[in-house]
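W.,

You were right to be curious about this one. When I first looked at the sequence I had no strong expectations either way, so I just let the prediction run and decided to look at it fresh. Below is the sequence, 253 residues in total, followed by the output.
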Amino acid sequence: MMIIKQDRTLAQTFRLAIKEHGVFSLYDGLSAQLLRQMTYVALRFHLYETGKRYVDEYNFLHKVGVASVAGVVAGCVGIPSELVNIRMHVDRALPERKRRNYRNVFHGLYTVARNEGWTSLYHGGSYSCARAALITIGQNAVYDQAKMNYMHYFELTHDSKVLHVISSVSAALLCGPLVQPIEILKTLRMTTRAPGGRANKFFAYMMRFGPRGLFRGTVPSLMRMVPNTTLTFVLFEQFRLYFGYYDDVPQET
């Protein structure tokens, strides 16, 4: 939906993909997505959780600063796998002569480095890092702030599953529209074959449907982000509660 010129709805895009390429085409890029999750996303969470120990956790701007740094650093690590991931997503939408036909993430990384040079693995890196910073703010920092506010106003305890669910849903609903414009620009940059790219051309193409072009694909993005964010934080909190530690517990000698 981000790159095609036709103004198709989500339902039309689903039907067309299944009709022309089968149900499994909806999982194109899965290997790249899994590698990206295990590297970039894991590092983003770790850096944020570590960094917020050194700032005032009750100050939202402090958490935004930590989230920005964590997102940019993790984004730099995840650029190559994200590049291959996006290209595998959109490959079937391209004319056959322009398809890259990556078999998996490792074949994609090798093919890009061999045919385009290893620096091409970082095409769109600035967009990717900006997106990583925004999504860390929208997910991690907003989640922590929402959890703090809900605990105060609804008198919920920190281990409440209801608290974790409503906080994560709130973060996802805010994060989706927040990152969508930069997500589209990043996708356009990473799918182009040109070694360089002018931001004004990408922006002009993004606006081909008018102002709503800024949020093209927001609905499927939220359909992915809301359950993904909710499951991530609920499981994260359960692991923290059952496998974490408390500094004030006396150690046995």
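Here's what jumped out at me. Residues 81 and 160 are 35 Å apart (CA to CA). And, maybe more interesting for your project: Residues 60-90 form the longest helix (31 residues).

Coffee later to discuss?

I.
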